[in-house]
Specification:
By secondary structure, this protein is of the alpha/beta class. The chain has helices spanning about 10-25, 60-75, 105-120, 135-145, 160-170, 185-190, 210-220, 240-250, 275-280, 330-335, 340-345, 350-365, 365-385, 405-415, 445-460, and strands at about 85, 90-95, 150-155, 175-180, 200-205, 225-230, 230-235, 240, 255-260, 305-310, 320-325, 395-400, 420, 425, 435-440. The longest helix is centred in the C-terminal third of the chain and has 19 residues, at about 365-385.
Amino acid sequence: MIPLPRRISPSEILNNIHKSIEQMLFFNQPPSNRPRDPSMFFHGCSGSEDVDGTPPERSVSRAATDARASIEDALSLDGPPDVRVAVGDRVYQYHAGSGYFGLQSHPEVLAATCEATLRYGVGTATSRAAFTSPPVFEVERRIADLFGSARAFYTSSGYIGNQILVDALCGTFDRVFIDEASHHSLFDAARNIRAARFRPIPFKHRCPEDLQEKLDANLRWNERPLVLTDGLFSLVGSIAPVDRYVELLSEYEGASLLVDDAHGIGVLGRSGRGTLEHFGIDPATANRTREDTIDPFGLAETHPVNLYFSLSMSKAVGGYGGVIPGSDTFIERLMERSKVFTGASAPPSPIAAATAKGLAVLFDDSQLRDRLRERSRYLKSRLREDGFAPGDSPVPIVNLTLGSALNMRRVQKGLSERGFLIAYLPRHPGLGSEGTLRIAVFATHTNEMIDSLVEALHDIA
């Protein structure tokens, strides 16, 4: 009689997972060069010969397969994104992306993911209108508490968050204006408004004067503008002048400002609450309905400009998805007007648990945020010492324009050969015509790592 396999208990699974996490976090050697089986890229190929000896037809040529495998090797991170990453058969010091605190590989975040998988499964297999797992509610509670809001709405995609916001605001604006360097999600949200008169009107990057000109040239009498902008522009490392936009828009009755703060949370503001806090604006005054903004005694608006913002959990927080905090009435409006609440699956339970734990690690004390500010200052001071111009923006992103696009690609390639990964960004609004090199610094980088990067950059550039 064949014995039945022993049933493994959840506690044993967790122990094995935790051991695997510990081993993964402390790798310091390149991964083994595992043999690749090209047949995995062939569809419908058995690897045998036909009866008459003719090899079977392959759906993909070997050349195409080899090219695809090469691309996969070049673009696949064989491990979590942190100060060191494995790509192909090499380990690099990593200065790209937006995992500013290394939370994507934090042991507590990974453990929370695993534990939630065992307890709740992958997801609820329903929309938010039906059932939701406790980790999703925990993310909403943590964000609401952090931003001083009554509630929050957590969705599976930060990208779609701006569409949800714009859908909820329809009927409160008549014209849309957008910073030319804004994220694609803001442009898509604006373009999805069907009426032609809502087609977004771009203004120059971070330029209140050009915005003023565009407002005056396009607004008719009594029309209400909606201005869209990133808070922290992750490609160029610049911050939208939100204070000046608010001052400008206060002259237009019914004006609204929507800030995509995907990269601002955790990075900007005294307590890490993002771009609004960076400019001394209480985020609790944003994402409210007109009913919320009326003083019950004097019937006067408590803020001259309607402020709105969205958040992403996949950057600084180390999780995934988008969150919009707000008042009770505002969140109710989001859920009523957006098809996402009734038509899209809830965020996966393990990812929600990871996001909640990332929020806890990042905001329960200020050590990580303080360390990121220190690392940002140190990188920029070292670059200045070596004759570079990193700017003085208080963000963990540096843009360096070093001559032509060809030269910057050479510098990027030279750094890669010496074990450093940075990004080269081609022409984009807010950048020069030749593009720029983008260097990110994380709270988990050491000063010695930063020194080695700057020394290599000095030698190559």
